[in-house]
Amino acid sequence: MSMAVPSRRRVAAWIESPRVQRFIITLIVINAITLGLETSDSVMVHWGGPLVALDRLILMIFVVEIALRLYGHGFRFFRDPWSVFDFTIVSIALIPAAGPFAVLRALRILRVLRLISMVPQLRFVVEALLKAVPGIAAIAGLMVILYYVFAVMATGLFGDTHPQWFGSVGASMFSLFQIMTLESWSMGIVRPLMESHPYAWAFFVPFILVATFTILNLFIAIIVNTMQTMHDSAHREEQAVIEGAIKEEGVHIEDELRALRVEIAALRADLRSGSMP
Fold it and tell me: Which residue of 43, 73, 106, 171 has the smallest Cβ count within 10 Å?
């Protein structure tokens, strides 16, 4: 048992080493390229066999990597959400893509998502997005209310003359969503609408200003603020560690100085006693 623990620690340290992690990242990128090439019939005619073999080899390496991480970390492996994410992705790839499970063959591309857990910068962005979910949900709720209010108004104003866009609240919400994205909103919807309603622009311009330039920027503000908060928190933690190390080192220096003072005092006492007749 005592020999197993150091062995597991060595395995965990090796599998998490930068060199091995860079190798896994390289395989993920190569696997993404091969999965994309497999969608081409002409490529599969000439290179189908090698591509399938390479895909299976990379999957086998991923399985070995997950197994080594499980062995190295033990049950602590499942306490890390990113490790569980990797385990789930690789497990999905092992499901036979034949018969009723043929649709799962397309899910093999999910292996590319492992880049999120492997690259610290991507992991930081995803964690920021997850922490921003409460704020985003609040803004989304405000946006739904805004859409509903404007949709009811648009249905009442334009539903009789243009039912294809504003015949119901649902159709109005979809049309307003298209207008919010600024996709053909002018020539596709508003200008034809202004032929029968010349002042329709007075309804849609405020909607665009509020929905597109205000609400969407609030989403960006929430995410940026969350990322800044996480960055500041990480910086404070680093500073706390550094200050703790400095303080601990200072305590050691003070202890050494006290010991030196005691030794000097003892030496002086010995000299005085030796100089006396």
Answer: 106
Residue with tokens 């400095």: 246
Q: Name residues whose C-beta falls within 8 Å of residue 211's C-beta, 6 or more positions apart in sequence.
A: 143, 146, 147, 150, 176, 180
Indicate whether 170 belongs to any domain.
yes
Nearest to 124 by CA among 229, 222, 254: 229
Q: If you search the block for the tokens 């033990």, which residue do you land on?
A: 74
* Total number of domains in the chain: 2
Residue 202 CB: number of other CB atoms within 10 A? 9
CATH for 89: 1.20.120.350
Which pLDDT does position 121 carry in this prediction? 80
Q: With contact defined as beta carbons under 8 Å apart, do 184 and 165 qualify? A: no
pTM (2 decimals)?
0.60
Neighbour-count burial for 62-73, b at 16+ CB within 10 Å, e otherwise: beebbebbbebb
Domain of residue 213, CATH code: 1.10.287.70
The pLDDT, as a whole number, for residue 130 is 82
Q: DSSP string of 153-168?
A: HHHHHHTTT-HHHHSS
pLDDT along the chain (277 residues), means of 10: 66 87 88 84 84 88 90 86 84 68 65 77 82 86 90 90 89 90 84 87 90 85 85 75 69 72 74 59
Same domain, 147 and 221: yes
Q: State the helix-helix crossing angle for 41-73 and 4-15, rounded to 10 degrees.
A: 140
Return d(Cα 218, Cα 224) in angstroms, integer: 10
Range of the domain at 174: 133-232
